[in-house]
Design goal:
By secondary structure, this protein is mainly α. The protein contains eight helices and no strands. The longest helix has 30 residues.
């Protein structure tokens, strides 16, 4: 196996934040990076530390035979390569997590145990964060006294956060969220917009809906003045 030199521009992985909101991005980029340097087998369970082929020799006082010596030499080479891969994975994880998290996992044995411990903790944490953000997005409501553009910007930002977590809301769901976030006074207008689009055989995107609602809000503000 060839040795991969880790340069400054290699393995650029974002730091894993303690809340776990970037876990999906972190995990994918980490796995891609170590796959690029041929060490993915250290965290997918497909490799483990090699056992000395001469460990079970009955008479260890006798000199190794030619075959045993060759096997010992090959084992030493492969073990060195394996340990180098382990060191790379451990260092890459240590360099991209906070000290408090490092203290929790440093006692684990090999790279697989370290990665599994990290994944178990953050998969659970990530699911809780994603569910909470989904709920907040669905509960977001536009107040007539607020700025409608700021309201839609907030909805977009929450969608982008969910996207960064690997759970981007489908357009149909986001469209429904936008409609339900508007006050009842907009119901008739939204119904008319959807009806017109249906008659014309067009499908409005969430951006289309937010644009037309922004224009309607501006029109109502102008009429009041």
């Amino acid at each position: 196996m060839s040795t991969t030199k880790l340069g400054e521009d290699f393995m650029k992985i974002p730091r894993l934040n303690v809340a776990g909101t970037n876990w999906v991005i972190y995990k994918d980029r980490f796995l891609w990076a170590i796959d690029a340097c041929r060490h993915l087998n250290h965290v997918d369970g497909s490799t483990k530390e090699l056992v000395d082929p001469n460990l079970g020799r009955e008479d260890k006082t006798k000199a190794l035979t030619a075959a045993e010596a060759a096997a010992e030499l090959e084992w030493n080479k492969e073990l060195k390569t394996w340990k180098q891969g382990e060191a790379i994975i451990k260092q890459q994880i240590a360099a991209t997590i906070l000290d408090s998290l490092f203290m929790k996992i440093r006692g684990k044995g090999n790279a697989l145990e370290i990665w599994s411990s990290l994944a178990n903790e953050f998969e659970k944490k990530f699911r809780l964060v994603a569910v909470d953000l989904w709920k907040r997005l669905q509960d977001e409501f536009y107040s007539k006294k607020a700025d409608v553009q700021m309201h839609f910007d907030k909805l977009r930002m929450m969608c982008e956060e969910l996207g960064a977590m690997g759970t981007t809301p489908p357009d149909n769901d986001f469209y429904s969220i936008i409609m339900s976030s508007m006050p009842p006074s907009y119901n008739a207008y939204i119904s008319a917009v959807n009806g017109t689009a249906s008659v014309l055989g067009k499908t409005l995107s969430p951006d289309n809906l937010m644009q037309t609602l922004t224009e309607e809000a501006d029109r109502r503000t102008a009429n009041k003045k």
